[in-house]
Amino acid sequence: xxxxxxxxxxxxxxxxxxxxxxxxxxxxxxxxxxxxxxxxxxxxxxxxxxxxxxxxxxxxxxxxxxxxxxxxxxxxxxxxxxxxxxxxxxxxxxxxxxxxxxxxxxxxxxxxxxxxxxxxxxxxxxxxxxxxxxxxxxxxxxxxxxxxxxxxxxxxxxxxxxxxxxxxxxxxxxxxxxxxxxxxxxxxxxxxxxxxxxxxxxxxxxxxxxxxxxxxxxxxxxxxxxxxxxxxxxxxxxxxxxxxxxxxxxxxxxxxxxxxxxxxxxxxxxxxxx
Length: 274
What we know:
two-stranded antiparallel sheet
């Protein structure tokens, strides 16, 4: 009974995280990881998980939950005609490769490095989305040639290291390339799947046999978190997608930016006070 009572706050936190993450996955195309990682990092800290692997477990578990969430989100956005199939085919293999490399690099990095990376990237993206830059573009269209693969490779690598589905990076990048926000959000859901699969498998292998892992872990992926969070994210992602298509472009950008600013502040505070 004492064990059950002790786990109750953690279980409730996981369930609430699943609901919020699913709504944001559909609303913003972020795969939910931008919520799951900081919340899991905090929850794992409360329960005494070694700080040296805490972010690794949070990131890996986040990526595992993004697999089913992304499938649900892709279906919802595809039904609205908001997925750019040509772009998904062009960027997809490079995003996938970047994710595999990012997971390998993260496994060799300390928790402080991962949380700092998470906070800095989230802060930069938040500022971009909050400022009135909707008419500012780096170029008119997605680049091809040598530069073409570099962008999705970077998105896949950074997203895998941060435990996010790709929308956090690909949405603002695509809007800077003069792509409509709703189509950017819908296509980002596809990239979330291509990031989460190789990323989660990479973290699973990298953490295999680590004696510091919390109970119920398969490598760095915690199965308790996966089982509790994933079903709720799948159920609530379509609700977020429907809400996204009721908002205007500027409203959606502001919502995205404000949320990321809060998350970035929390992660940078964690980095420099740990």
